[in-house]
Design brief:
Number of helices of chain A: 16
Largest sheet of chain A: none
Structural class of chain B: mainly alpha
Helix content of chain B: over 70%
Number of strands of chain B: 2
Shape of chain A: globular
Order of helices and strands of chain B: HHHEEHHHHHHHHHHHHH
Shape of chain B: flat
Helix content of chain A: over 70%
Strand content of chain B: under 5%
CATH architecture of chain B: Orthogonal Bundle
Mean pLDDT of chain A: 82
Oligomer: heterodimer
CATH class of chain B: Mainly Alpha
Number of strands of chain A: 0
Order of helices and strands of chain A: HHHHHHHHHHHHHHHH
Low-confidence stretches of chain B: 1-20
Largest sheet of chain B: 2 strands, antiparallel
Radius of gyration of chain B: 25 Å
Mean pLDDT of chain B: 84
Largest interface: A-B, 120 and 123 residues
């Protein structure tokens, strides 16, 4: 039944009921100052690094080492825009190329993985084809295969077909999302009633039209969740691009910034790019934070889907 | 309970409805559409999961030298791996991480979710989002940020500890690097786990608590005796996620290695070892054996854990 709560309206309905129940308890328990202090400490802990990064992105290298405001506050000088300019100048603005690559990989990998997961999840949930049980069993086992264990053989396989060091070496493996298929199946089983599909078929709709017009709209909450999860997964990916890409122009922003950090740490031989690293890191976390904040109502319910075993 | 039993019951409900359809030819033909829907995923699944696994296994049975070329050696690479002190030490390291890091993340996530579940203030909604935000930060960037924060040159540690008249610990020294890594991972993932647990808590019918309140149960009793048992399947799932992630530990130590000179060797975790074997020493066959061996260890541990918790997770 809980699956139903994943549609936004009903979730709100549920909240209201819960709200009154906990308010009743709040009356006996006082204003819960202790709980709020506990939360405040947690918030400070979780937000401090991001606050530090925000502040750091406004400093030049000298300011990072010993600015007037200390590490957690702004300096007298504001260098954010000159840092931005530095990002445009450094190696002809390669940073923006990396950011674009990250977008390309995350969106094509994420959207592709989601499309495959929706189709497969629906197929598993609503058709009783031969071999379904066996395939789904293997898929459940695959959820537990550590994806990093596949990186080295994938590298060797891709290099044998000449795909290493191309965008496909990152995008194609990112299409694999057994967990997404699993989530979709669990969701489709409950959210798409067989009666509705049968009614559409009796009205003469083919299987494909039934899928697009009846099933797809009902699957929307799960689609957003799987899309977010797979976009985040690809955006975060580090091991795979680190292994399969060597052309600096193809790197995603994560691998690129890590390279700058290694360069800056190399000591006297390397160049200190600290201000570019902090500003670049700050810019690179903004898109996903915005995506999560604006799509809250979808993922907050959707993330619990996986526990519905 | 509604959360955990819903799909199972729908599964059961599905079975009789299938009995109604007689397996006539038309029904069979319709069910074949299932394969068409599954086919695109099946193709990727075969190419990028089954094929690499089979290929890694095959590679791990060979050894390649300049003198003799590819030579079949059977299980030799595995015998070598499981008697390789570097690999075993890496396994020991990730096992130690699993034992400390997973309980730490679970504790933070569970307590935060239970506290948030009792509140409906805006402050609690705001806190929920802020605790979750690190999940949206790429792991590499998270590790980079903490690397800066730990650093005695950039970080605020010395001024914060200075307030209390203490000297800041050297977070990046060899003795402290373990705890520093535990902190990074907890920061990165506890919020995500908290959201999963919180969503499960929201799925419990509040009527259940009312009866307990009438019987005089305290908040703590309700939390420990009612809520935690009712969301056990979510907890099991979160632990499995954390376990799989921890055993493949790679990104954070790899990134932190740059700042923590000498504290993290290239073979700190099995994945790092496999990576450096493959890409620094071109020992692809042995690296495949290490990867495959690690995969087996992860698989066995996850299954073992699921077996131990089969009652709680309702998997049986």
């Amino acid at each position: 039944m809980a699956l139903v709560t994943d549609t936004p309206q009903q979730q709100d309905g549920g909240r209201k009921v819960r709200g009154s129940a906990s308010r009743n308890r709040a009356r006996n328990g006082g204003p819960r100052i202790g709980s709020h202090i506990f939360l405040l400490i947690l918030v400070i802990y979780f937000i401090t690094p991001i606050w530090w990064l925000t502040v750091a992105s406004t400093k030049d290298t000298a300011g990072l080492f010993g600015g007037s405001g200390g590490p957690l506050w702004f300096d007298n000088e504001f260098h954010f825009f000159s840092n931005l300019q530095g990002l445009f100048e450094r190696q002809d603005g390669i940073y923006w190329r990396w950011l674009g690559n990250s977008f390309l990989y995350a969106i094509s990998g994420g959207v592709g993985a989601t499309i495959l997961a929706v189709l497969a999840g629906y197929g598993f949930a609503k058709y009783n084809f031969r071999g379904r049980g066996a395939f789904f069993g293997i898929l459940l086992g695959a959820v537990m295969v550590p994806l990093t264990a596949l990186v080295i053989p994938t590298f060797v396989l891709l290099s044998s077909v000449g795909l290493v060091n191309t965008i496909w070496a990152v995008i194609l493996p990112s299409l694999l999302s057994p967990f997404g298929v699993y989530l979709m199946r669990v969701f489709a089983q409950e959210a798409v009633p067989d009666e509705l599909l049968d009614a559409a078929r009796i009205d003469g709709a083919g299987e494909i039209r039934t899928f697009f017009q009846i099933a797809l709209p009902l699957l929307r909450p799960a689609i957003v969740t799987v899309l977010l999860l797979s976009v985040v997964g690809t955006w975060n990916n580090f091991f795979l691009p680190l292994a399969v890409l060597s052309d600096p122009l193809l790197l995603p922003v994560t691998v690129g910034l890590n390279g700058w950090q290694a360069l800056s740490n190399a000591g006297s031989g390397g160049e200190a790019l600290w201000n570019l690293i902090t500003t670049g890191a700050f810019i690179s976390i903004i898109p996903l934070i915005i995506a999560f904040l604006s799509l809250q109502k979808y993922w907050q319910g959707g993330l619990s889907l996986g526990s519905l075993k | 309970m509604a959360t955990t039993t819903a799909p199972t019951s729908s599964h059961r409900a599905e079975a009789p409805s299938q009995v109604k359809h007689r397996p006539d030819r038309n029904y069979r033909r319709k069910q074949r559409w299932g394969w068409l829907f599954v086919a695109p995923f099946a193709l990727i699944f075969l190419t990028f999961l089954i094929l690499p696994l089979v290929y890694a296994f095959r590679m791990s049975l060979f050894t390649s030298t300049l003198a003799t070329g590819n030579r079949f050696v059977g299980g030799d690479n595995y015998i070598k791996a499981f008697s390789d002190p570097i690999f075993l030490q890496g396994l020991g390291t990730v096992a130690k991480f699993a034992l400390i890091m997973i309980p730490a993340q679970m504790l933070v996530a569970l307590v935060a979710a239970l506290v948030l579940d009792n509140l409906t203030t805006w402050a609690s909604k705001f806190s929920r989002l802020m605790i979750f935000i690190p999940y949206a930060v790429p792991v590499v960037i998270g590790a980079l940020m903490w690397g800066f924060l730990y650093s005695p040159r950039f970080g605020p540690a010395s001024s914060i500890f200075g307030i209390f008249g203490l000297a800041a610990p050297e977070f990046l020294a060899q003795d402290n690097i373990f705890g520093s890594l535990v902190n990074i991972v907890t920061w990165q993932w506890a919020g995500y786990y908290m959201i999963i647990i919180y969503a499960a808590l929201r799925g419990i019918d509040p009527g259940i608590y009312e009866a307990a309140v009438l019987d005089g149960a305290s908040d703590r009793q309700i939390a420990l005796r009612i809520k935690v048992p009712m969301i056990s399947s979510s907890l099991v799932m979160v632990v499995i996620f954390a376990l799989i992630g921890t055993l493949q530990f790679f990104t954070e130590p790899q990134v932190l290695r740059g700042v923590a000179q000498g504290a993290i060797p290239t073979s700190y975790t099995p994945n790092m070892y496999a990576f450096s074997l493959a890409f620094s020493y071109s020992q692809f066959n042995y690296a495949s054996a290490i990867s495959f061996a690690l995969g087996i260890v992860v698989f066995v541990f996850s299954f073992f854990f699921l077996f131990l918790t089969r009652k709680q997770s309702g998997l049986k």
